[in-house]
């Protein structure tokens, strides 16, 4: 699986030999074809040509099949998040309006779309045995969402606590997701920042959906996901600072801050994040993306609204039982 | 009929070919050729509707919809056969006489005594004794011993000590269907009680001395409170409309010291339509999130569930926190009243959250108090306007509570699903007829078996591994302050999409934890045995005796390896619905999966009691794809323009 940003085809349909060669060699070892998953709609991708971007033309990349799976990003995604949080916090909504409020935020539709696209990417690799190139426009948002989720689906090593941290480092932090811009003020702020968008939260929500559908297959639990969410927005650690490696170097992040992973991995801390039901599953985990299978992440969205006492007690009981083996 | 196709409900590409059989009690589809001889059995009683669709090139489609939400799609090759099957099923699914029902031919091969014992498992007298009755305030009355006062009530009822037969009879004449106020639940810690009845025949101004005396007696049976709540579970408008028909509700002016309260739960017709709408949403082929949420809201189903729950919470609070007794009624006192009283009892008393207690609760508030099982669930062919998912709603309330309080119930989701199944299956005699009187006339106890005894035998399958009787969640009243929140009510896909394997988590946490518990228990028992033996050895060593060493049996493999790891699940069709590339390679892998599932499956989790061979749950049915989930959020591609897509998708 590869990721990139959009090719700069432009209105004149420019070509680039090196780019074509690169993708050609990827398919080198007797593979028939590859798949390009473009996270923009065909329309949007075409329009991007006007401003210098575009898509890979079939003629120049003959062995690659291009699939468009539009995923929401940017301002609309932030609005979706804000609407959802507003709905969750609104005590005046009666039962006969709740679901439509939930629906009008479209958050769950975004979760469904993200999971579907990631599954598609995974399917291309696992079932069709083709290489996959994922990109949107910049390659820093929906691209990373897809590649990270696809790896969780495909690769059991990403589902261990250590493996997941590695996945985050690789596919989000080093890959240059602009955390500083994206995770700025969150849902309550009135400042509607242009660059703010909850892609990382969307990713965590999708991971939570996976953990619900495959309760034995992830070595970590909800608590880790909530901690990551918190730290992406505000943290005592330097892990999610800045927007990319270059900035982190310039700011000397490694020299002047502590790593979140170092803290999480201490034995005393670590055990809080482990899933007591974990049992290594070497197979690919294919989630159901039917609406009935996708649920609202109550642990996050109702975290401060309702007590989690009874669910916590249930987890304590599960822990107790699992330990007794 | 041979060469019938059984379609996968959502992926029309996947059809199984086999033979269809119709017996006196079941429809059976047997798949051709598979070594596993996969069979699908459906009880006639479960059939809710049969639809013949337009003939296509491949044959005549027939859709069977069941009361337990299973949907079977068949394609019959010959139109004539299809028609015959259709006509037969219509007749078979609408029995006219009780004797046609499965319970009269179903044979568990128990002897007469065992059968009788089975019926005695749940004893209501014992239950009232457990509550602390009879006592200074409450007595048992046999005024209805020949069903002379009220034919839908049981022969034994509990009323306040001060109430005479005269008062009961007088009150019964003032109540719809003669269903006078009687005790449902008594709280011995504070003497508050829940009583139930039907609506008074008060019209606009009628009064009845005995009925007023009855309510006064109920109030006085609780010395800790100076008033009585009267809860009418209907919407105010409906109740007022009833007044024009000479019925209505209690006037606070006429009854001393009552506080009257409407809690608007809609009637059986609204509920029937609500369920219908929700099932239509479930029927959608790969809906978008939008379609689903809108459809669900439009059905109003969860709103109704919440209304029932809220009513139960109100009553439970009145009893537990205020120490005030409550009289509950609706119109006839056998639908909403039953729902609300049983929810309230469950919230108040942890006993009803145990398996046995729950069986008792259903016997008490549903069976003995004359809930019209026959009319509501269509044991026999009857008026379609009487059909309504009343007990289904109650069962769902319990499930919603289980989701919020995972440690509080001794039983699990499967227990609830199986009970619902048997409400419609008519395989056992518990849920037949409309009243105790009818059941006695038909000699149900002598001629059929009790579901409770049958389920009790398999109770290990129904246990909740997180339940501990000493847990804080299982003590006392359930603290439902959080319950009024809307978002806590979830769509119960385990019930309404029960037969769609692809939708549910592949790995059952419940089953795994139960296995863990069992193994731990076995190990502890072994430890005990070993310790005993050690003690004996030490003793006999002293005595110089030889001790034979016994062969220890290895603890059984309980599948602790979350054997489901080997359940390779297969992907859905994640791509565009109309033309997708094959999402299942016809590889060996998939067949292996099926075989694995069959052999090491927790078959215990399957509904083995549905009928002899039904394997709906056994997982033999393949885990395969459902049709695409592409849904509404992805605009349909204009594949004509995008040459890449067209070529690709043609593969």
TrEMBL record, chain A:
Q: Which Pfam families match?
A: Myotub-related
SUPFAM superfamilies listed in its UniProt record? (Phosphotyrosine protein) phosphatases II
Q: Which InterPro entries match?
A: Myotubularin, Myotubularin-like_Pase_dom, Prot-tyrosine_phosphatase-like
Q: Which GO terms describe its cellular component?
A: cytoplasm
Q: Which GO terms describe its biological process?
A: negative regulation of autophagy; phosphatidylinositol dephosphorylation
Q: Which residues form the Myotubularin phosphatase domain?
A: 1-301
Single GO term (MF) = protein phosphatase binding
Q: Which family does it belong to?
A: Belongs to the protein-tyrosine phosphatase family. Non-receptor class myotubularin subfamily.
Q: What is this protein called?
A: MTMR9 protein
Taxon lineage: Eukaryota, Metazoa, Chordata, Craniata, Vertebrata
The gene it comes from is Mtmr9_0
Automatic annotation (TrEMBL), chain B:
Listed A to Z, the keywords are:
Coiled coil, Cytoplasm, Hydrolase, Lipid metabolism
Which GO terms of type biological process are on file?
A: phosphatidylinositol dephosphorylation
Instruction: List, in alphabetical order, the Gene Ontology terms for molecular function in this entry.
Output: phosphatidylinositol-3,5-bisphosphate phosphatase activity; phosphatidylinositol-3-phosphate phosphatase activity
**Coiled-coil regions listed:** 513-540
Q: Please name one Pfam family that this protein belongs to.
A: Myotub-related
The annotated region (Disordered) lies at 541-651
The entry marks the following residues as binding substrate, namely 267-268, 330-336
Predominant location category: cytoplasm
GO-annotated cellular components: cytoplasm; endomembrane system
Q: Where does the record place it? A: Cytoplasm; Endomembrane system
Q: Which Gene3D superfamilies match?
A: Pleckstrin-homology domain (PH domain)/Phosphotyrosine-binding domain (PTB)
Q: Which residues are the active-site ones?
A: 330
Q: What InterPro entries does this protein's entry cite? A: MTMR7_PTP, Myotubularin, Myotubularin-like_Pase_dom, PH-GRAM_MTMR6-9, PH-like_dom_sf, Prot-tyrosine_phosphatase-like, Tyr_Pase_AS, Tyr_Pase_cat
The topology of this chain with respect to the membrane is: Peripheral membrane protein
Domain Tyrosine specific protein phosphatases, by residue range, is 299-343
Annotated Polar residues bias: 558-588
Q: What are the residue boundaries of the Myotubularin phosphatase domain, all occurrences included?
A: 118-496
Family stated for the protein in its record: Belongs to the protein-tyrosine phosphatase family. Non-receptor class myotubularin subfamily.
**What protein name does the entry list?**
MTMR7 protein
Q: Which gene encodes it?
A: Mtmr7
